[in-house]
Amino acid sequence: MQSDESLVEEIKSGSQAAMEVLVKKHYRNIFAYTYRKVGDYHLAYDMTQEIFIKMVKSIASYNGQGKFQHWLLKIAVNHCRDYYRSSAYRYKDELNEVDNQLKDDRENVEDLLSKKLDSVKVKEAVNQLPDYQREAIILKFYQDLKIRQIAELTEAKESTVKSRLKQGIDKLKLLLKGGDEDEQSQPNQQNRLR
């Protein structure tokens, strides 16, 4: 199989076949990232097509420094960020609430993510995270990137990425165990008032 760099050079020379090979080679990974980011199959499909269109339009700017896969993933990260800033996202219906309990409450959130479970509850919980935490969680646990790579892709400091991951995991623990701190503290407050 040809390297990404040789395919890029062929594309720059006008080869349609090389472009098809390159897209086919990376399509699944980019679709998976986009789907996990937006949580909607059809939207992810459309956005993946748009990401590859952006790739084709900007392939001349790829200079061969760094892995092509990371360069392409950077386009996907930015495209998803643009979507969340768009009016289309702002007017989208609210996501369904997460079920109160997982079948096994004792299972650790990190274990769920590291197993790459695609259960509806985990997806919904991840989708409820703030965008910056969701992005870090997806890149770490679903794309298997290192902290340094996530920092480069998101243009954040490594300490910021670590913080986002920790906060995201803590929030997921609350969501997957059935509610957030405010909901859990309400019964205690009501008991004190009686």
Automatic annotation (TrEMBL):
Residues 88-115 form a coiled coil. Residues 121-172 form the RNA polymerase sigma factor 70 region 4 type domain. Belongs to the sigma-70 factor family. ECF subfamily. Residues 22-87 form the RNA polymerase sigma-70 region domain. It comes from the Bacteria. GO terms for biological process: DNA-templated transcription initiation. Keywords: Coiled coil, DNA-binding, Sigma factor, Transcription, Transcription regulation. This is RNA polymerase subunit sigma. The lineage of its organism: Bacteria, Bacillati, Bacillota, Bacilli, Bacillales. One of its GO terms (molecular function) is DNA binding.
